[in-house]
Amino acid sequence: MSGLDILKNNLIDRILATRNEKLLKAINNIFDSTQAIEEVVSLSSEQIEMLYMSEKDIETENLISESELNKIDSEWLI
After folding, report:
1. What is the span of the domain harbouring residue 72?
2. Looking at the 3D structure of the chain, how many domains does it have?
3. Angle of CA points 40, 45, 48, to nearest 5°
4. pTM value?
5. Distances (CA, A) of 18 to 2, 6, 14, 46
6. Looking at the structure, do residues 34 and 60 belong to the same domain, yes or no?
7. Helix residue spans in 1-78 (DSSP H)
8. How far is CA 59 from CA 48, 52, 53, 56, in A?
9. Which residue has the higher pLDDT, 6 or 34?
């Protein structure tokens, strides 16, 4: 049995043994809030390509600071 399975079984045992309704509601809220985080997001091929391009820019240190970007944007908007 893996460490994850042992942890799950220990939590199940403790949940079944408790009579604390507030604790059970809190555990339920934790599960509800983490479900949204675990949802799989499908990306288009264009979005995936942009992510690859971003990673390449980071690797080659082709970066710009936020303040410099804001300055360039301000000049462009004039």
Report:
1. 45-77
2. 2
3. 65
4. 0.43
5. 25, 19, 6, 50
6. no
7. 3-17, 21-38, 45-59, 66-77
8. 17, 11, 10, 5
9. 6
